[in-house]
Design a protein that fits this description.
The chain is mainly α. The chain has helices spanning about 1-15, 30, 50-65, 85-100, 120-130, 155-165, 180-195, 205-210, 220-225, 235-250; strands at about 20-25, 70-75, 80, 100-105, 115, 145, 175.
Length: about 250
């Protein structure tokens, strides 16, 4: 699905008399998980572990087929959160209502996450469109690609604590969910999605990602080439989570 959509847009741009800049919003999932102590960089070979990641990578490759005809830049954000987001909302709800934070798997306490607030991502996308490096035919790995992520890479447990702080709640009880239990829940989500004919917040694909290693990426290239973020000092993860919690409450989502 991602490949066909990207190819259609790229083809439409290529058919224009003056092709516009095309910024393809991909995902860290297209690159794959990282080692706990080494965030991914743009030149690393991609190794997606989910259908979603493979689909996003297919979209990147579809875009690369138009590199000689359209100025194209690929941006790979990690977990995106902020106003309107429903995926991270489920984590907020567990902490807010039950004082619980679920950590996938029984091992890997040092697994870490990269995150990006939607406002910071939008700024990065605009900068990528304005002055980003472009894909080139036969270019080196990572050419025309950027990771856009916050500087902080909390562990799964630390992220739950950060959500509790944003909600002004006591530290949540950490529940480590065994892989088999999560996979069973993912299958249940798949079934419900088919019955309701709409996506669920948990499914087998998401479970595959959750049980992988760390999901971190380095945004040094974006900082050096794009001047991102433009604010100094940039907003911290804690500040962005407080803003998100406030929006959820004001919107009646919590």
């Amino acid at each position: 699905m991602n490949a066909g959509g990207v190819e259609n847009v790229a083809a439409a741009c290529a058919a224009s008399a003056n092709p516009p800049v095309l910024v393809v919003v991909s995902s860290l999932a297209a690159a794959g998980p990282s080692a706990p102590d080494r965030p991914r960089v743009e030149g690393d070979p991609p190794a997606p572990v989910s259908n979603y990641g493979r689909s996003k990578l297919a979209g990147e490759r579809a875009a690369a087929g138009y590199a000689g005809l359209v100025p194209i830049t690929i941006v790979r954000p990690p977990i995106v959160f902020g106003p309107g987001d429903r995926a991270v909302l489920e984590m907020f709800r567990l902490v807010s209502r039950w004082g619980v934070h679920v950590v996938p798997g029984l091992a890997g306490r040092d697994r870490r996450l990269s995150l990006i607030h939607v406002d910071d991502l939008v700024e990065g996308l605009l900068l990528a469109a304005e002055k980003g490096e472009r894909l080139r035919v036969g270019s080196s790995p990572g050419q025309g690609v950027y990771f856009i992520a916050g500087e902080e890479h909390p562990t799964f447990e630390q992220f739950g604590q950060a959500i509790a702080n944003a909600l002004v709640r006591r530290p949540p009880a950490v529940l480590r969910a065994p892989g088999r239990l999560l996979r069973l829940a993912g299958v249940g989500g798949d079934v419900m999605a088919r019955i309701r004919n709409r996506p669920t917040w948990i499914n087998s694909d998401k479970v595959s990602e959750a049980l992988a290693s760390s999901w971190t990426c380095c945004s040094e290239k974006a900082r050096e080439q794009l001047g991102w973020p433009t604010a100094f000092p940039p907003a911290t993860l804690a500040e962005r989570l407080h803003e998100t919690a406030r929006w959820y409450r004001q919107s009646g989502w919590l």
